[in-house]
Structure formats: C-alpha cells, structure tokens
Design brief:
Elements lengths: L6 H21 L7 H27 L2 H4 L3 H7 L1 H27 L8 H12 L2
Helix pairs in contact: 1-2, 2-5, 5-6
Protein name: Transmembrane protein 138
GO cellular component, one term: vacuolar membrane
GO biological process, one term: cell projection organization
C-alpha cells in the first residue's frame, strides 16, 4: 500500500515520463539524418508510455474501491483515462513504425504521404 508521502514520488515519475514524451515528440524530427538514434528514442518513448500505463494501473489497484471489489465503479470512473492511454500508445507505436520504415530506406529525403500526415496529426492531437 502506498503511503501519502509516496504519492509525490509517483507523481514526479509520471511528470518525468510526460516530459520525456513531449521532448521526443517535439525534437525527433531534428534527428532525421540519424535513424538509429531516432529508433532508440522512439523505443524508449514507447516503453515510457507503457510504463506510465502500468503506474496508472498500479495506482488504481491500490485504491480502497479496488480492494473492496467494486471494479465496475472503478472502471466506470476511469474508463476514458484508460482508453485514452491505450489509444495514445497504439497511435505512437503505429506512427513510429511507419516513420522508421520510411526513414530507414531513405534518410535524407523528406517523405510524407497523406496517410502518414493524418496519423501524425491524430497522434499529436490524441495527447
């Protein structure tokens, strides 16, 4: 069980993961000429998003509502949060796979298809 003093540590961890996610989304286009570094940043970003989701679930599992067995109530209250977290992870992974497939073949050309641009906008707006 988490003590009240430990919530600040968990909140700090969530903020650090959010800042890293924002950092990679903001500056990953600057590393277009180095696809290996961009691949490592994307993998770490996806692992960070997954880790943030795990921390969210652990926080939900430590509530009194979960321990009392009221899973329906807990899922009803946090349904949008869980779905948005899963949607953000799915959009990020699909965007990263598509970008790396295009960048790995031709690293110095600027290739943006209509579908990639739509996925890019959806992933950025879906935050």
């Amino acid at each position: 069980m988490l003590q009240p003093g430990n919530y600040s540590l968990v909140l700090t961890l969530q903020f650090l993961l959010l800042i890293y996610d924002l950092f990679v989304n903001s500056f990953s286009e600057l590393l277009r000429s180095a696809p290996v570094i961009q691949l490592v940043l994307f993998i770490l970003q996806d692992v960070g998003i997954l880790f943030a989701a795990i921390v969210l679930f652990l926080m939900l599992f430590n509530t009194f509502v979960f321990q009392a067995g009221l899973l329906g109530l807990l899922f009803q209250r946090f349904q949008v949060t869980v779905l948005l977290c899963a949607l953000h992870l799915a959009l990020s992974v699909s965007l990263h796979v598509w970008l790396m497939n295009l960048r790995w073949k031709s690293e110095n050309t600027f290739v943006w298809s209509d579908g990639l641009q739509a996925l890019f906008v959806l992933q950025r707006v879906g935050k």
